[in-house]
Design goal:
123 residues; Rossmann fold; 5-stranded parallel sheet; two-stranded antiparallel sheet; 7 strands; 24% strand
Length: 123
Amino acid sequence: MDAILQGRAILIVEDEPLIAMEIVRAFESAGARVLKTSTLREALAVVEDDDLAAAVLDHGLSDGDSSKLCERLKELGIPFVLHSGYSAVEGACRDAVFVAKPENPEVLVTTVDGLLRNHPISH
């Protein structure tokens, strides 16, 4: 894998600390600049970062599900992956690229890498 993630801002939204730590470590190892949040409220603020390249979202968060976040990412043209134990996802997240939990964080890195390769930068 070449350096497509190098220096790119990737949002990780995960409320399980150990899972979040593993995902953050995997993306940092790939050269990404990681922005991590554990709540929907924080994530909705972070997605407004002009440099955001992509996101990895847990669907079930302590303060709600990620539907509003999926909707906003789509509006902004930012690719994202839903990484969740919930398989019955509705609304704005329904057609998201889905990686079921538990999964090796390297799979998430590879998935985001693929999304960025196939997604022209629109902002």
